[in-house]
Write a structure and sequence with these properties.
By secondary structure, the chain is an alpha/beta fold. Helix content is 39%, strand content 23%.
């Protein structure tokens, strides 16, 4: 199958490799790129002794730029969304990593169980834009929080020639959508709005129901949702019709 990968270049490389190993043709179509602010992360880490929370592996990549300056903080508790983010945190040297299975809401509930009676605000090293679920649920659970943005995603608009090649000349069989922001960005691309029939034969494989809700109504029947919000479950959709 011809599968469009909408992830940023760095995080998309592993996905492309996995698709190739599965026998698919991977079509890279990054719609954003991260701009890291490691200094903001280091300043926040130096000002608090609290546990750390991350909801994206991109945060871990931002922290990697600190190199040896990160060493004093590697023993802190770090709460991460998903196995992949937790693995990157451990690979970077964090020794006390706890992971939720899926969403930011589940991570908030894990923190509430593990950090009952927390007094010092949890340090959330975040990106922009981001989903509100994690912060909203922590507020509902009365968990104090300090949010510090250590990266932001810069939009990329693919050229029309690439979009024509992927969706018109030989149409893609599927497109992988990992976030609501990416889905909204994808469906608002001027070329695809100009040629809506270009997507008529493409399946949209979504990491969550919230992402699937971002698929235009006319294409909603082509959207499938992973059974769990992780890449293994997402790629498993390629074997189903």
């Amino acid at each position: 199958m011809r599968v469009v990968v909408t992830r940023p270049q760095h995080s998309g490389e592993r996905t492309i490799q996995r698709l190739t190993e599965m026998g698919h043709e991977a079509l890279p179509l990054p719609l954003s790129e991260p701009i890291h602010d490691a200094e903001a992360a280091q300043k926040a880490l130096s000002e608090t002794q609290a546990a750390i929370a991350v909801t994206s592996a991109e945060t871990i990549r931002a922290l990697a730029a600190l190199d040896q300056n990160l060493s004093p903080y590697l023993s802190r508790s770090l709460f991460a969304v998903g196995k992949a983010t937790a693995k990157e945190a451990r690979n970077l040297g964090f020794t006390n990593v706890l992971a939720s299975e899926g969403s930011g809401i589940e991570l908030a509930e894990l923190i509430a169980r593990k950090e009952a009676g927390i007094q010092q605000p949890l340090l959330y090293l975040a990106g922009s834009p981001r989903a509100a679920g994690f912060e909203t649920r922590l507020s509902e659970l009365n968990i104090p929080l300090r949010t510090v943005e250590c990266y932001h995603m810069l939009d990329i608009t693919p050229d029309d020639a690439t979009l024509r090649k992927f969706f018109v000349d030989i149409r893609a069989d599927a497109a992988l959508l990992y976030s609501r922001q990416t889905a909204l960005r994808f469906f608002s691309l001027p070329f695809l709005r100009k040629y809506p029939h270009a997507l008529a034969q493409t399946r949209f494989l979504c990491l969550s129901e919230a992402i699937a809700d971002s698929v235009p109504a006319a294409l909603r029947a082509h959207a499938d949702v992973a059974t769990m919000p992780d890449e293994d479950s997402l790629l498993a959709l390629l074997t189903t019709e």
